[in-house]
What does this fold into?
Amino acid sequence: MNITLVTVGKLKEKHYREAVAEYATRLSKYCRLDMVEVPDEKAPESMSAAQELIVRQKEGQGILRHIKEDTYVIALAIQGKMLSSEGFADLINQLGIKGRSSIAFVIGGSLGLSDEVMKRADYALSFSPMTFPHQLMRVVLLEQVYRGFRIIKGEPYHK
It folds into this structure.
């Protein structure tokens, strides 16, 4: 299976980079993982709704450039569906069974995802109604993908 992680912004903090690298290494046993960082747009603290829309659209265009037509897209969005780890593993497994071997997970920037990205998404996934730093969400997502593959394979890890 091919997993692509498309994110907005660079991973700056060393501890996040190290955690992402660790899960990328662990995942290499189960899938091919590609990580794409799309540049984030300048977003000053005080912006109008119209300015925020422009930022999301520009970031969205960057995201969509990295998603192939035959890729199943899972967008991380607060308004998405929440799953248990077993349910998430089942989603990944069912996609593989149905021949959907390319999955892209999309994490937006601080203002979220554009309408265009959400329309392209095949599935909206929420980890919580809380807001998390998008850099931390990379780690959380990769850990859950790893956990999902371990569950699918019936290997110890999940408790």
